[in-house]
Amino acid sequence: xxxxxxxxxxxxxxTRVVSDDAGCVCGGSSLxxxxxxxxxxxxxxxxxSISSLSVAFPTEVALTNGTPMETLSPASxxxxxxxxxxxxxxxxxxxxxYASMETRDLFVTVDDPKKHVSTMETYITxxxxxxxxxxxxxxxxxxxxxxxxxxxxxxIKLEDSQPTHLIPPLPEKFVMKGVVDRFSxxxxxxxxxxxxxxxxxxADHPVLSFNPHLNAFLTAKDLNKxxxxxxxxKVGESVKxxxxxxxxxxxxxxxxxxxxxxxxxSLKLGTIDRIAxxxxxxxxxYLTELREYGTVYSSWAGSEQELRRPLEGVAACxxxxxxxxxxxxxxxxxxxxxxxxxxxxxxxxxxxxxxxRDQSQAEYEGRLEAAVLRKQEDRTPIxxxxxxxxxxxxxxxxxxxxxxxxxxxxxxxxxxxxxxGMADKNINYYEKCQAAWESLITLLQDRQTEDKxxxxx
Amino acid sequence: RRLSAHICKExxxxxxxxxxxxxxxxxxxxxxxxxxKRTGKNTVNMQETYTVYLIETRPAETVPEGGTPATPDTLWxxxxxxxxxxxxxxVTYPYIVIPPLPEKRVSDAYLEGKVKNLYKFKFVWHKLSAxxxxxxxxxxxxxxxxxxxxxxxxxxxLSNDEIFFHFLTEGWRERVLETGFQDKADSRLKSLSAxxxxxxxxxxxxxxxxYCDELNTVISQxxxxxxxxxxxLYGVYKVHGNYGRVFSEWSAxxxxxxxxxxxxxxxxxTYAASIDDILEEEEHYADQLKEYLFxxxxxxxxxxxxxxxxxELEMAAQDLTHKKQQKEELATGTxxxxxxxxxxxxxxxxxxxxxxxxxxxxxxxxxxEGEEAVKEKNTECQEFVRTAxxxxxxxxxxxxxxxxEALISYAxxxxxxxxxxxxxxxxxxxxxxxx
Lengths: 457, 435
Fold this sequence. Notes:
The complex is a heterodimer of chains A (about 450) and B (about 425).
Chain A: H1 2-15, H2 36-56, H3 74-86, E1 106-117, E2 122-132, E3 141-147, H4 148-161, H5 185-204, H6 212-219, H7 225-244, H8 253-302, H9 308-378, H10 384-456
Antiparallel strand pairs in A: 1-2, 2-3
Helix pairs in contact in A: 2-3, 2-10, 4-7, 5-9, 7-9, 8-9, 9-10
Chain B: H1 5-12, E1 28-41, E2 47-59, E3 73-78, H2 79-92, H3 108-120, H4 135-153, H5 162-169, H6 173-178, H7 181-193, H8 203-251, H9 258-332, H10 340-348, H11 353-433
Antiparallel strand pairs in B: 1-2, 2-3
């Protein structure tokens, strides 16, 4: 069973047709439709099973290395799909994207920030390293330098070419010049981590990772951005305009639920953000007072004899605690908050995709209604356009559901990591403080026994 | 210090031996166990509410196996009576560093802090009742009063005082008033507030005074900053409670993550609530510091008393010198020092031989008295210095020991706080891991 699964996965990749327009991602030829409704069923199944296969693989699946299975025809593939579909015994863990690490064959990293100064401008570039065994890439390894603009370009291209998919967000583009130092170590570090996360999410996506723009981004010496950018944004916009003319009647319940979830979730994220900021503020005020507290012990030590060392010990202890606290607060600012904020952006992206899906459904329903009316009037058959719209909508729905599941899974992992990280940092902080106070007690008590023995002597 | 016979008899009930240098605590257990509100008419016939404290004493004998300890003797005393006792001790043993009493009333700073926090709507550590009947204040005072009694009872000199004994066991008012210490107290107050300059100050006492000034300043500062630190820490902990609420709300829309988030939220609530006990415990440390803050006043009081005696000695010596000079002038007829008598005799003629001789005799008498006075004052001064310095050395040792122990117990408190923090966050982490 497992063997077949991996073979199917591989063969799927071979038959996959990546298109640049807003069409379906699966190879059109594998569809077998007699009527709109019947085909819809099969199509759904196929899409669901494709998507769920890519996330449902247990970790034991080995990577098959390039054994072409052209003998496996689409028809028999679909029967296999159906058999697999019946297997409802999916472990919760099996749905974790990160669990299927061994099936990954594209690894990307963003690191090594460098400042570039020219007469016109100053900017930062990052090294983007790629390791891959995919045939879509000419070489197994690449190393290029990219700046934020390039990431932005990639994102726009992905959004326009894969409108039915959720594109991960980028960190904020604009920063207030007076308020934030764009070249400070902290800012660059935070941004770089976010860019790395963005690229990794794209590379892990079973559809987006095959996008030729990603390929270009990862491999090209110089990105030829200007031409493509202008053209595609115009096309993208026109597509949006057309779809925008239609009104949505009834959104399917599952998409309503998604929308509601996102609304509540973004509210909660906002609250958590505010709480974290408040904690940082309170900690900072506490730190100020604590520092002064330590200095008072130091100055007291100056007027004492027997108590001098103990008091200096206390002062040193307090200073250690201050250092530990500062570290904790910095970590919250630099690691916790940015990830939280990025998820807010992610939620916005997802909402956007939901809206586009709505538009796609609205367009289909609108056109269908018009066509049906005309058919009733003068027997004009339902045009192909309408069927295409239906396809588009169904593709969209399927892609969206798949992406939703992936997003939920990623979200769970990300927050698990984020929150356990926060707990870890707090534990670290207390451990450091405890160690400092414990060594102080040793110091204080040693003196005591010293004094006692000298007394008895 | 000799005790009267009937006091001895009473003591016999409690002691096996009559070593008068043994401190009282070895014979007697002393506790201030309770506080109660009373209302009554005060000296100007107005209704007032005040607090009384129950003092329990019992002989410190070992209780046999399965036996019950003897029922204690009890009596009620109010704060003003403690004050009276302390004043009596101050006057009677001016060379001893008398243990301080806890604060008389809620300090202005304490009140200010509460009011400010009310209006800031920030997290307030200080609870909100603001008078001497505030239960926390009363409780802390009870502890302070007990501490005062224990300090006196464990002092080798003070513990043998009969008035103190009566304070603990029966009607003492008449007795203490009998000692007539009130008059001494009044004159002491007057002299202490007077401005005078000592010509040859004792270097040791000067250094000690200086040290006390420094200690007083630094402990005041420490108490202030510590209170601010406590307020801030309170804020940090309480904000985490908000995590509890939001995690709970968030868990409602999640499927797999829900349980983990919900339980983690509970731990955040626990974390936020834990600060109350932590800070309550820390107040004990603040009380220990405060006692020594007040102790600096007691030490300065001894220094001032010494200064006064020194001054009186100098004055007496000066007076004697002056008189001797006068005698010399009278005897030799030379006028070196201006005197009215001298002037008038110049103006109105020389006095008779008789007059001169009677004046000389009077002066001789005066000089003799003066010499006695100087001798006495010198002895008094030396004795004072000796006994005072003995007690000061004792005090210094006590201070070093007590403060070191206070620092140790403070460190232990901090460690306990850290352990609690680690526990809570580890629990939360476990919950997050189950998400």
